[in-house]
Amino acid sequence: MRAPVLALLAAGLCACVDLPESAAPPSSGETSAIVRLPFQPLDPGANEQVSLHFKVTAYGSDNAQRISNQAEGFYTGIMTDTNLFSFMPSGLYEIVVYASHEEYARKTGQPEWSGGVTYGNALCSYNGPQLLETIAHEMTHLVFNEYMGRPRRDLLWVNEGLAVYEQAKAASGTRVPAELFGAIHRQMRSQPLALDDLLGFVPLSEKTGDDQKVALWYAQAESLVQFMIERGGRIGFSQFLPALRDGKSFDEAMRSAYLGVWGDLSGFYRAWQASPP
Prior knowledge:
globular, single chain, 6 strands, alpha/beta, 2 domains, 12 helices, 6-stranded mixed beta sheet, 49% helix
C-alpha cells in the first residue's frame, strides 16, 4: 500500500509500496515460484527459513524462525476469516526483513515513509514495531490478488478492508480498528462515505489531495469487511469472494453468498449503517 499522506501513518496503517512485477524478470526454473527481487539482498550471513507457505530471509536464525512462525499464523488467520482453505498458492511467498529502516531504504530505494514494499509474490520490510502488522497487511494483499487472478481496482475496498482487518488482528490483540483510526472512526459512523463514493474512490491516486477522506475510506472499508465476516458469517464471505472472482457484480455476489440476509450491496450497506458502532 503506497501511503502519500502522513495522516495514514498517524492512523497506524502500514505504509507500503506495491511495485509491478514487470520491474524485473522473475527467476526461472524454481518450483517455489519465488521471484528475483530488484533490490539489494541482505548482507552475507543472513538466515533463511522455509516453511509450508513462506521463504523468510532475515538476520539471525531465531529472528527468521520467529518471523516464519508468525507469518504462518497470520496465513492461517486469513484462511480462517475467508474460509478459503481449498485455495492453493502457486508457490512460496517470500518475506525479506532488513535489519533497520536505514538498510531497508538504502537497499530498496523506497521513500522515507515506506514501511514495506511488495513485488510479485514477495514483500520486504525491516525489523521494527511495524513489522508484524506490515506482514499481515501485505500478505493479505498477496493472497487476495493471487486468488482473484490479478490485482483488481474494482475490488479495491474489499482488498484493503480485509488487509486492514487482518492488520488489526495481528497487533497482538492490543489495537482495534477504532484505535487505528482514532477520530476518523467516529466520523465514519456519524458521516460515512456514500456507497458510490466508497466504490469509486481511489485513495492512493496522485489526484487525491484529501488526507482525511483517504483515512476515512480505509476505516470504512475495514468496518464493512468486518461486518460482512463477523455478522454475515465466514461461510458467506467465502462464497462472496469466488462470486466476485468469477465476474459477478457486487449485487449478484451478495445475493448468492448471503441469500435471505442481504438482497444486494445497498441492502448490506444499509444494514451496516444501522448496526451498533
